[in-house]
Each structure stands twice: as C-alpha cells, then as structure tokens.
Amino acid sequence: MCRVFTAILLLALIGCSPGFRIDRARSDSYYQYVPSGRVFYSPNGNWFELGWNRMVVDRRSFRVLDEAVAKDCRAVYFRDKPAKVDYATFRVDHGVYKDSLAVYQVTFSGLQPVQVRDPATFRYLAPNGMIGRWGQDRLALYLDYRFVRVDRATAQVLTENFVVDRDSLRVAAGRVVRAVARYGLRYGE
To answer: How far is the CA of 151 from the CAs of 101, 140, 141, 148, in angstroms?
Structure first.
C-alpha cells in the first residue's frame, strides 16, 4: 500500500512539471511540454516556487542562447518576454549580450542598452574570468558600463575594486574611480 501511494505521489509531482528542458547544456529555464509542444519559461526550473510562463514562440526555430535568453524566427526573448534588440545581429558572446548597436545590461525590467564605444569588441574583465563590474572594448575601459580614463596598453584589473596602469592605481568606490597613486608606482611588481 505504501509503495502504491509513493508511486502515485511521484507520478503526480512529475506530471505537474512544465515539461522537459529544451537545451540542458545552456539553460535550466526553458521547457517544452511534450503533448502540446508549447514552450514555457520557468526560472532555473523552479516551477513550483517561482512558477512558469507560457511563451508564444515558433517551436521549430526556437533555440536557447543562454540561461535567460532565447531566439526564434520572429524575436529574441529575455526570460519569457520579447527583448527590444537588433534581431539580425544580436548574440551572446562570453556572457555579454550585444548587437551591432549596443551592449545590453540586465535589469529588473529586462535588457537595457548601454552605450559603449565599440560594442563588437566589448567583453567583461575580472581577475578570475567571471563577469564583473569591469569591461573593455578596443577603445576604452569601463566600470559598470561607464568610461574610465586609463592607459589602455598597461591597464590590468587586479580585483573587483582595483585597476592598475603604468601611471596609477585606481580604486572603485561605488561608481567613482579615483587614482590614488600617480608617482612612484612601478607597473608589474
């Protein structure tokens, strides 16, 4: 009797799932419900606690780009809503959401465009290779997507809050970057 009850309970819980993950390697959030073929977005697969939203997409062309970004033949989707991006050139490049016009920052309301000097070459910088507050393109260095004046040839991100170049050590306090040493600092030691 106990085994029958356990089996029924497990089947009921599995049956309440939004479906099967579409691309397990890229995201835990996009699911397809097999009987109907409908696509659902459930943040991190936590459908029980965070819920799920049905998406109106073209299933044949739908593909997952990242944990929270997908694309079909009509639109790019951030989470479960269409994003306002340049569809033809949008891509996810090492964690950076970008198209030919801008780099996109994740906010509570979705993807917001951020103007950088060269979106095509923008990438995040962090000492451990993770996405951080610092970024660069071929023309400039940025803290929280704001331009920072440094010598680009020798600039090196040391930690989340420190950048050194041949002339100074820069400290990020909030969004303010201050040069704390101008003379006597030897680069590379």
So the answer is: 26, 9, 9, 10
Query: What pLDDT digit, counting tens, does each position of 93-143 carry?
Result: 888 899 999 999 888 888 999 989 999 999 887 655 455 778 889 888 888
Provide the residue type at 57 as one letter: V
- Strands 63-66 and 81-82, bridge-based pairing: unpaired
Local structure of residue 130 (DSSP, 8 states): S
**2-40 confidence digits (pLDDT tens):** 675 565 554 455 555 557 888 888 988 888 887 788 888
Query: Distance between terminal CA atoms of the chain?
Result: 72
Q: Which amino acid is at 145?
A: Y
Please return the burial class of 42, using the count of CB atoms within 10 Å of its CB with bins 0-12, 13-18 and 19+: buried
The size of the chain, in residues, is: 189
Number of C-beta neighbours around residue 166 at 10 A = 14
What string of DSSP letters covers 105-127?
EEETTEEEEE--S-GGG-EEE-T
Task: Answer whether 54's CB lies under 8 Å from 28's CB.
Answer: no
Cα torsion through 41, 65, 75, 102, rounded to 10? 120
CB 94 within 8 A of CB 86: no
Question: Which runs of consecutive H residues, i.e. helices, occur in the chain?
Answer: 2-15, 47-50
Amino acid (one-letter) located at 53: N
Decide: 150 and 179 in contact? Cβ < 8 Å.
Answer: no
